[in-house]
## 1
Amino acid sequence: MIASIQTKNQSITRTLQDFFADLLKTGAVDAVLVPSRISESLYVKPCLITSADQMDPTVPLGPGFFVNAGPMVSRLTRTKAGATIGVWLRPCEVRAFVELTKLRQGGREEVVILSMDCPMALSRKDYEDWAAQGDEGLGDVDTWIHTVYQKPVTQVDAWPVARACQVCESPYPVNADVSVMLYGADLDKEIPVRADTEKGEKLLAALDLTDGGQEPEPRNALLANLTADRTAAFQALDEEMRVRTGSIDALNRFFSACVNCHNCRSVCPACYCKECVFNTDAVAYAPTQYLSWADKWGQVPMPNDTVFFHLTRLAHIGCTCVGCGQCTLACPSQIPVADLFISVTRNVRNAFDYVPGRDDAEPLPLSVFQESEFTDIVGMGNKEVT
Amino acid sequence: MTQTVMEPSQATPSKIPSLTGEAFEPVLIAFVCNWCTYTAADLAGTSRLSYPDNVRLVRVMCTGMVDPQYVIKAFLEGADAVLVSGCHPGDCHYINGNYKARRRILLLKQILPRFGIDAKRLRLTWIGASDGIEFAQTMTRFVKDIKEIGPCQARQQPVI
């Protein structure tokens, strides 16, 4: 079912804020999770809101993306809460949450996932510059919205969107309960919303929204162009990464500014271990070990285990990286971590024919096996081994 | 059985073969499962079969417990090749650990070549407890293959 929400005062932000307020007022949900400004600063974070009069600071659509809310929804659904929560998520946040539910770190039972055609994100520096140009310490959100959904763009006015967004191949809702379709919509007039599940239909029905809308006519063509552009952009990124990290020496150089702060791990929505091995005594080496390493090569840079850390993370999230780009945003040394991870993982997961977030029923590749598969990688190459 | 313990001080920079022109003696790390391949190695030893002493065995309870990071660490510490070897399909002491290992090796074979570590340097084999001869042959063959490929880059320079 596709319904249509009338735009109020030509403001998409206001219209969506009222939509969330109505969800709370009608009791369709008990709480909503929406990005909101913190103490009138320019930074937004997902906020769990239960009061309909708290919508003013929320920024449902904008280029600020500093927390992937997937793990936040995981926290909210770790055990039963006895309440329904409407969660407003970017497509990569939905993907992250779906991957976490496969690890039983959260469940969909008590949430209604509302997702949207993605407004993309800016790097931290660009976001600060963008915000500085607007009124009240936040950039012109409605201009951003009107620009970003009209044609495929990698740049909105003067600001190039984050590299992770430039190569994202699915900036539209997959696996949500309600999808808000913004590409190609006449945003001054209406916002088309589609219920993708029974839960989504019930939610729209609670707001008296009926099957009167339709998908914006140019949307499919716009998405096709967008996907083609981004596939080409990904190929360029992939090529660049193969050159920049194609050897151990090159990899050393790529991560040479890394200070082992492990921020990329903290913000990664796909990093799932409850206790990371890099926080354990497994990497607390004896002093003599350092000396023997130095003896082996003539020197050992400290802190060590930098590349080891990143390659281990690559192996652990090789199939499930959702490409949200948070690792790059969080890196204090401006290492384009996401560029490398997106480039490598998008190839790795092909070997398992796996796409993160595509399907709840699709098991994690490393949690299952078949008796007769991948037999060609076994053996010394001199005979068939099954 | 021939098993040597790696002494870090044996491989001082001046002893890196490619720098000194000496014959290249690769270092192979083999993660072998307690129930099959380790037992096969034992059998090879008690049968007085010889195989190159380039191989350092690491006994694990099951190939299914070889986290990808063990393999990554071995390569970053300068191993020229890594072998993971366990029970034949259907013979796993823990029912299906070897099937899980196979997927992890596939994952690593996708990742490591991106960074210049040839996929041929990582092998997965099934060697049963009674296959002492096959164990010795496999080790000999692997060492020969790696000698042809040459030393891994991480052996010649520290990885940060």
## 2
Amino acid sequence: MSGNGDGGLVRARGLAKRFGDFAAVRGIDLDVRPGEAFGFLGPNGAGKSSTMRMVACVSPRTEGDLTVLGMDPLTQGPRIRARLGVVPQQDNLDTELTVRENLYVYGRYFGLSKSVVRAKATELMEFAQLADRADDQVEPLSGGMKRRLTIARSLINDPDLLLLDEPTTGLDPQARHLLWDRLFRLKQQGVTLIVTTHYMDEAEQLCDRLVVMDGGRIVAEGSPGELISRYSTREVLELRFTPGDQDPAAVEGLAERVEVLPDRLLLYTADGEATLAAAHARGVTPLSSLVRRSTLEDVFLHLTGRTLVD
Amino acid sequence: MTTTDPTGTNTRTAARVPGTVRAAWLVVEGRWIWYRRNWRSSVFSTVLQPVLFLVALGLGLGSQVRPGAATDGLPYLQYLAPALLASSALQTGSGESTYPILSAFKWQRTYHGITATPISATQVLAGQLLWIALRVGFSAAAFLVIAAPLGALPGPGVLLSLVFAVLTAMAFVAPMVAYSATIETEVQQFSVVMRFIVMPMTIFAGTFFPVAQLPVWVHPLVWLTPLWHGTELCRDAAIGALELLPALGHLAYLVALVAAGVHLGRRTFVRRLEI
């Protein structure tokens, strides 16, 4: 069995990373359990990728404790990496090689024999729906195909832990759903996944548990459902107005929290329909209204703000 | 070990951590898989071009050159061939240590891919340098095979020249790889290096005519170039005229350049891949 005494595949205490004067990660605690899909959510610059690189043993930590698969990345980096699969934010395939050659060459870096890598490459091309492009060069493949190949490549060593840094950024909806399907299948096989994303639907779809990072710190932690019930209300009432016409004072006291957007008021409330009736009773007349369930996106924006980060 | 078999089939893998030599060799293997399909595209610049120089200058122009003290008593063709071996090795190596390195860091990011496996940044550098050395060696050997029937080779000593030619190339390659690894944004650096360092070096470092023909104030500049030392070694080895002390001096200089390049390159590779 992999992992250390308490069964955590990744365990961090006070983990920090600084680049010169810039603190990318400012002391975080993490426990990732075997078999779970664990997510890092956060705006750009929150410290997700820096954390992932430390876990991937390609970036030494500045401070704190970190064990991955029960070992210390500072001293056992290569041994840990032998059991990791890594899907980086930017594909780093060798685009002058074919699909098959990419898998073959990569597998060899893990010290696998030629025959094992050949067989494994064939399996993974099936898995990633790339078998009919096996002997094509990678360069002209679509973004979705390259991403699938990157994921297939990360599985060449049968990793115990798969690290995915924004796996579906830049893909069209079809490609994203196909990728999610593959990731579900991996999860069912018992592979532990760590995913960073800034897509809330992706986090809700994939993650059993997640942390929200902001400014190098963890600002919330839990399952998607827990986070929604803790940081948001059950429902959200959206009242739409001609931009500039909305008056937050008119709905004061009707909801737990009101958020003012240029063309809308968001009323965070347990019962959207009842709140809407109350608003109508006060004579509030929006152009249109919508009652919806709270989503992770509401939690995220509440926790990390609506200001553009970069 | 946890058993994970994502594809639902039965191929079990047993990943392990390759030792440094093996790790470097695996990097070479990766490049070889590319090369064995793509070698044709580089054959012109690495093998045919030096042969054309040999024919045009060695046979053509050389027919007008009388063997004498300036040519070590050799026909010009034979005077030229061992030096051209060193010079073309260096040119082949210089091409391999510019854009391919920048690309592996910046455009394709293949180095980042490799260092996510058990292989470390230092091992990637070792593999890359070993690959360039092998590639320079192949090209130089092919040049010799073509030059032999033209009567361009003075004697069996050219086999030793081959070794010296690879060393000469690496004395330029190792520092050049270290420099290329520092480049984050390509502007004009590589063409500056080619125009103002590699080109003048191949013309004036003793390949085509003795350095003694140059003004005295230029000599120290020539002595700084790895190619001059390599040319002296390759030519003397080819005609069996190596003298111990000068040869050791040339070797020491070339080895020092390789060592400096490896040292600097290692620092940069680690800085960029393991930060």
